[in-house]
Each structure stands twice: as C-alpha cells, then as structure tokens.
C-alpha cells in the first residue's frame, strides 16, 4: 500500500500488530532468561572489573580525601596530621578566590546547560516528527562532530575567534571594521568559553530528548488532536510534558561535564574566565599544593555526585534486568 | 492531524540544517587551513599547498606522539572490551541489590570528573612509589572507557537467545568453548562498536594523559595542546588535525554502516 494513502485506522491496526509482535518477542525472551542463563559461577565474572574500578577509581578518590584533610602530603619530610585548615580556608576563610571561581564555574555551566537544552529541543523534535524515514541517518550527522577530537574542535574555534582569526579577518576583508581592530569580546571572554562549550555539548543534549520523543506513545498527541486541541495546545500540554525526562537528562548530561571542564578555558578563555577545574589543575601542576588542590577536587566530586543522585532517575540506563527491552 | 504543520516542518528543517552547518563549520575551517600556504591561519587565503602535510609527517615529535596515542588507545580498548565482556556476563547473572550495587560501581567512572580522576591517579602513582608512566595512562583510560564498553555490550548480550548457548553445552561443549564459539561471535557487532568507542575516547583523552604521561613522551592530545600555544607549530597541527577529522568521520560512517549490515545479517539469521 502506498504510505501516503494509508488511512488513519489502517495505520493504527499496523501499530497494534507491531506492538503485539513486540510483546510476544519480549515474553519468549523473558522465558529464556528465567530458564537458565544465570549460572551461579557466572556471577563471579563481575569481580575482576569491579576490582579494577575499586583500585583505579575508588582508591584514588580515597587518597584525594586523605590529602584534603592533611593525612598525607606530597612534600617529603613534612609531618602529616589530621587538619581541616584547607577546608576551613576554602569554605569560610581567605580562600574566597576559589569560592568565587567555583560560583563562576557553576554559573557558566548553568548558562551553557540551559542554552544547549533550549537549542537542542527543536533539533530532536525535527528528527522525531519531521524527518521520519531518514531520522537515524540525520541523527548520526548531528552526532558526527562529537566523535572527532574535542581538542581539535576547540583549536578550530581558537582559529575562528582569534584576534587575527577567521571572523575578524573576514570583517576586515569586507570593510566592516578598520583593518587590525579586532572585536574585543570575541575571544578570551565569557562569550568564547560559553560558545565553545555550547558547541561541544549540543549534539549530546539532542540525543536523550530525541530518544524520549521517539519512544513516546504517538497516540497521545493524536488523541489530543482528535479531542479538538490545536497543534500548539497539543505540544504544550501533551508532547512537552511527556518529553521532560529527556529534557532533564540532556540538561544534566551537559551540567555535569561542564562543571568540571578545564580544557576550553585554557585555549579560548582569558585569565578571568578560568573555571574551577583549572584551579584544581594548577594545584597539581605549576604551583603544587596537593593538599589544597585535593580540597577543591573533593568539592567538585561531591557536587557532581549530588547532581547525579538528584537527577539519577532521569539518567537511568536500560541495563536493569527489569527494564524494558530496547527494540 | 500531523504533529507539525507544513510551515512548522519547513521552519524546523531550516533550523536543523543551519545547526548542521554550525556544527561542521569549525571542522571545515581546519580542513581549509590545512591546505593554505600561509603559516598563520587567517583570511584571505594565500593559496593551495600541501607543504604542511609533508612537514607534519617529517616532524618526529608529532609522529611519535601519534604512534604513542594509537598504541595506548589500542591497548586500552582491548583491555576495556575484555573487562566489559566479563562485567556484562556477570551483571546478567546478578539480581536485585547486588545488581544495583555492581552496576553503580561499574558506571561510576561516568560521573567522576576526568580532572579529579587524573589527580587521583597522580597521587596513586606517587603513593605506590613510582614515576608517571605511559602504562599509568593506559590504566587510567581503561577505567574511563569501561562504562562505555559495558553500555554497548550488555544490551546486545541480553538480546541473545540463551538456547543457542545451551544447545552448544548439550552437544558437549565446555562452558568456555560455548562462550568462544557461540556467544562471542554473536556479540561481535557490539564488541566492534565497543572497541571503536573506547579507541576514539582514549585517543582523544587529555586530562589523564597530561598528568600521567612522562614529560618526554607526550600523547597526541598533550602534544596538540602544547603546540596550539606555539604559533610556529600550528599549521602542522592543523594538517594532522584535518586528516584525523576526515578519518574519524569516515570511521563513524563506516561503523554505523557496518553495524547495520551485521545486525541485518545476524538478526535475519537468528529470527
């Protein structure tokens, strides 16, 4: 049958048949699973990877915590003792410079997350509802830049935004600005840091929103329309609320990594645009003070873990045995 | 009524394609300047030249860093994929609280910021009493890519029909033989995806490598970062960057094409 001439009811029958087939497949699969996949000794296979993560992730974090309270130190010969002086300084005392850096980082991360989420929604909406047949190919087009080197993309932006870079030299060539006079806020500014972070993360936000829109029960907006809702009303009162889990997941997907970001400010930020991650980096690099750096690192880990716990249910992966099969 | 009207659909399409241009523009800029004869990347273009490619590949520091990164990424991808298979098989057999706990632990590297993991590993190396080495970089990369391996392999493993494995066991295959002859070949598309994702992530990783790579042995991202601040080296970096961009886009397209092809074949054969 020609898809253009397919009637509404025929489409519904087709969908019902597909759903039935899927549920049947699911049931047989579940039967298999309860029958005999899990053998007791198979469980032990999870131990080596667990040990790996314990030694190379949990243990390092424990060490950072010990450094942050002065129980260990990187300076040989220095006596170590429990001390909260680093924490006191960072939270209440003269370390306010780093508190300021922390607040600034959270601000930038929030601005970037809100902007990417707002900008990504129409992209996901286009993929899910307009680009019906080609949607997976187009999704890949959107995600492709994400798979190329992150550092290279930041360097590309450096070349574009530089004082004698692409944008400025283009303005000069078009006689829109006197030769040699660069737009001052184009690079080493809040703008450049936020723009590059926005650029980096937008495909990653579009993805979870697309997944939610794609898996949404498409009969619901149809029902709203049948009951007389306008397109706008259907969107605001049915589609948007239903897609909120994807929106929140996308938002957090950006918020978490940008909170710990430090490469972009190094390349396109000025001294005033360095983020909290840069402070941590400096304490373990050029001006070593591992104890104070550990205070900052633990702070960042705590913030990110709290964010993840708060939004965890929106980030849930499909890996639990009771989760619905993907196909 | 369709969810989007004709005008709305056209508007969304314009918006989408404008964004695609925005996303690809920086990559195109790099490719253009890689073939520009001037040493500074600025407009107007000064003429076609392949000299930066030749210069880049005769720069032994650059090629050394590339080789180092490829080797690290290959080893990390292999280890992480192997651990990912074990973890997926184990998780599949777990239930309830044990499953939640193990899954949380194994996906934890997704949450800890790379910069924190990097300084943590630096401390660990110091506490163990050794110097930063490339081996430490490999181990660090294994940790951060392990969740990707699990997230790719486990759904595929769950979708396999256990009857095939049982049939092999009934026919006398040992547990290990059944795994090697039945499960692993059926998992192959996921293993390839996992390998590619882990390779790409490790190859591109900067934070951990910048702290743990010994000063004379930078990985490619570490070298890239250092030379992005050295104007004289920039054209060569751009040239290699252009090749890497072209390569990774081809890899993504190829992997997706290959995955579809394999899935059609396997699913068609199994179902």
Outline of the structure:
The complex is a heterodimer of chains A (327) and B (271). Chain A is mainly α and 327 residues long.
Helix and strand arrangement:
The complex is a heterodimer of chains A (327) and B (271).
Chain A: H1 8-36, H2 47-68, H3 85-91, H4 96-130, H5 135-147, H6 150-161, H7 166-173, H8 190-215, H9 219-226, H10 231-259, H11 263-268, H12 276-284, H13 290-311
Chain B: H1 6-34, H2 51-58, H3 60-93, H4 96-107, H5 114-128, H6 134-159, H7 162-170, H8 175-204, H9 207-212, H10 220-228, H11 234-270
Verbal overview:
- The complex is a heterodimer of chains A (327) and B (271).
- By secondary structure, chain A is mostly helical.
- Chain A contains 13 helices and no strands.
- In chain A, helix 4 (96-130) packs across helix 8 and helix 12 (276-284) runs antiparallel to helix 13 (290-311).
- The radius of gyration of chain A is 26 Å and the shape is globular.
- Chain B has 271 residues and is mainly alpha-helical.
- Chain B has one domain (60-270): MetI-like fold (Orthogonal Bundle).
- Helices cover 79% and strands 0% of the residues of chain B.
- The longest helix of chain B has 37 residues, at 234-270.
- The radius of gyration of chain B is 23 Å and the shape is globular.
- Chain B starts with 5 loop residues before the first helix and ends with a helix.
- At the A-B interface, helix 1, helix 2, helix 4, helix 5 and helix 6 of A face helix 1, helix 3, helix 4, helix 5 and helix 6 of B.
